[in-house]
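Predict both folds.
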Amino acid sequence: PDRAALHQAIAGAYQAAGDRAAALDHFERAFELNPDDRVSGHAAATTALALAADADDDDLAAAYYGRGLEVAAKLATVAPEYEHALLAGELAIGAGQLEAAAGWFAAAVKEQPQEPMALFYLGRTLADLDHNDEATTQLRAALGAAPDDELAVPIHAQLGQLLACRLELPEAARHYRAAGDTGRADEIDEIASGFAEALGRLATLRSNIANLVGMEAELEKLGDADGVTAQASQSAAMGREMSGIEDNLSEVRAALCQ
């Protein structure tokens, strides 16, 4: 008989025998027959993830990632929990679906906002999507969530890369050093010393623009249209100056963004 409980039992037997591919088939079928069977759904998704990671053929790995993602997405929809969303995100990464992965990791963060792993995965995925400002925010939050030493290393390394690309070199060097990459940190410190004046002006402009944006919001609340216009004009002028400096440093940025 085609019953969910029977397929789950068969899957367990295959899993115990070391035949993960056969176990996946039956876990998938058990979950298909009973979408409330979270155990089979989770087992199917994690088994697919493990098979994909161990596959020695790209097409086979892609197939397992796709199968796992289909199950994990249904599981995370039926039972929107932290672990399910995180698993769906991991499988989406493997399947090359970065936008979907970012969505699942964001769902995981919503379930557990102080979990550093989810914040790191979300930040890293946003960086891969070139949403660098959002990525930096999430990665800083990941550090603030007190990750263990092992997880802190890639968080620092990713932040170092993003901040170096933004020409925020002193902070980038600090993160690379915290990640244990002293060679890269020393290289960035050397670059920073050679462009200290320009980088200092960039930092000042960023700070001034942030202050002006805050003042503009306050003036808008007060209904001071002229004040808003004046602040916006100053912000635009500073933005143009920033763009000019960044254009002059484009070759440096290109090298640091690699």
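Second protein follows, with its predicted structure tokens after the sequence.
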Amino acid sequence: GKMSRKTSGKKKQVTIKNDKQKKAPREKSRKEVVAWEATGIALFVLSWVCIILPAVLSDSEGHLSYGWIFLLLFFVLCISSVVVLIRIFPEAAVLDMEKGVDKYLNRDFTKIADAGKQTMEERLKKHGFRETEEGFYRKKKFSFTKDAVCYYVALTDAEYPGKTCDNITSRMERIQEKTKATCEIVFLYRTELTQSDRDWLKNTAAMDIAMETVLPTAEGHSVIPVLVDSATGVGEYLAKTGGISIYAHGCRLLKKLCRK
């Protein structure tokens, strides 16, 4: 009898191991993540109930016979809620990222009717932008949510928009800028815009917007690429006007710049 029990135990262990191996790569569904988030929040609320309840239950002189139990429960529930929320955070962030990217991939571009180089230069100067020795137009603006945002605008010909944009960004990052929040707006002029240029723009911008929405920071560097058809002077970019992200600040500035 003992022998058979031992072997069956071994079998169980083996199957559990295999199950674990199968389950490891599986990501939690949105419903599961939401359920875990709700559990974490519920535990946190309960922990505070344990602090408030003794005050309600104690007698007129403030005595409560089992007060220490409530205190212990508060710590246990509070720590559990933090553990649950920390554990689920990476998966919740990934799901929010995917949702955000999908949302902006389905958005249409915002068009700028006249984004010709000369017109843009005049607009920038009119709005108080100063030309820097690195070839950018720079302006620092006060912002309630970010203290200040420093804008750098580049107007450049781009046969390969993605590559050009990366080069300009690395050039910008070498500038010793003291402002913690910087927004770079890059006008990329191309003789013939292709579908792959537009796909690059859509993917890059959707990713940046989603990233800033899911993990917002008071400082950082955001890039808004604007593709311009040199022949027609029509510019297009992926806009996000709501919110307090650096990208959204840049889009609001673009809107103001390009008002008729």
